[in-house]
């Protein structure tokens, strides 16, 4: 029998030290997505034991562009901790990271608990604010290659998040143009409509998926809706900025 705790220690150690590893499914071909989520939960427990604090969740593979880029076509989710926060306008260090990529995101900040099967209107009712955001993903697997169970076990490649200024929950986010630039050059252009047709659907899915894991979204939680475009590799010295129509911009520098 596979020891899920052992697998959790492997992905956690890879993330903690920034060391690439083989896909877990190479050694454990029978690892299914449910076991992958169990590994994720155990690996996050290790982070919490080290003093990190849970700050919300991130949804992943909620757009065609993302699914195509990584070759996995299933919506996934992961857990965010305070250690992943990057200050808006601040610096992201490459040290301790393997092959980080940036992607444009929309973030929800919640004011009410949310879990289970909820309507888009109920989901919106739990939102305190929305914000332009970027996520830094850094798969712990060599060459950024993984199966569904692998990426789920690896906490959906979570590595960093940066949030821009908060906007009212009533802001229309259905179809907002977004541009991500590196050193001023556009590297990705997309629309929030690429996120499951409407980013709010991603929050609806988050409520359902966390409930399946016996958890809830809580007041104060951040929920990332998932990238609308492909992610772009990062190099030292670059400035990364995303502007979202009507939401403003968010930026960081890489060192
Ligand atoms: C998995 C994480 C996907 C998103 O926004 O779609 C994700 C990956 O691409 O490595 O964060
Ligand atoms: Mg993402």
Automatic annotation (TrEMBL):
Q: Keyword Lyase, does the record have it?
A: yes
Q: Which residues form the signal peptide?
A: none
* Protein keywords: Lyase
**Coiled-coil segments, which residues?**
none
Please state every residue range assigned to the domain named Fumarylacetoacetase-like C-terminal.
99-254
Keyword Kinase attached:
no
- Provide any one GO MF term from the record: 2-oxopent-4-enoate hydratase activity
- GO CC annotation terms, alphabetical: cytoplasm
**Protein name from the UniProt record:** 4-oxalocrotonate decarboxylase
Organism ancestry: Bacteria, Pseudomonadati, Pseudomonadota, Alphaproteobacteria, Rhodospirillales
């Amino acid at each position: 029998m596979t020891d899920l705790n052992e697998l959790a220690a492997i992905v956690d150690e890879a993330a903690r030290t920034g060391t690439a590893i083989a896909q877990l499914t190479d050694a454990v071909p029978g690892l299914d997505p449910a076991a992958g989520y169990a590994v994720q939960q155990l690996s996050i427990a290790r982070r919490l034991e080290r003093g990190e604090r849970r700050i919300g969740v991130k949804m992943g593979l909620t757009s065609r562009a993302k699914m195509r880029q990584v070759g996995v076509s299933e919506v996934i989710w992961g857990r965010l901790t305070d250690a992943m926060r990057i200050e808006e306008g601040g610096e992201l260090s490459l040290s301790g990271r393997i092959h980080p990529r940036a992607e444009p995101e929309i973030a929800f900040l919640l004011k009410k608990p949310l879990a289970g099967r909820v309507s888009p209107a109920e989901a919106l009712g739990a939102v305190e604010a929305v914000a332009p955001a970027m996520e830094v993903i850094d798969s712990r697997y060599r060459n950024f290659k993984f199966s569904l169970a692998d990426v789920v076990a690896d906490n959906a490649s979570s590595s960093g998040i940066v949030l821009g200024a908060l906007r009212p929950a009533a802001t229309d986010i259905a179809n907002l143009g977004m541009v991500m630039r590196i050193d001023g050059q556009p590297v990705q252009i997309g629309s929030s409509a690429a996120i499951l047709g409407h980013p709010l659907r991603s929050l609806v899915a988050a409520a359902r998926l966390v409930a399946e894991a016996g958890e809830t979204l809580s007041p104060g939680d951040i929920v990332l809706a998932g990238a609308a475009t492909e992610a772009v590799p990062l190099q030292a010295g670059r400035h990364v900025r995303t502007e979202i129509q009507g939401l403003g911009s968010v930026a960081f520098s890489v060192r």
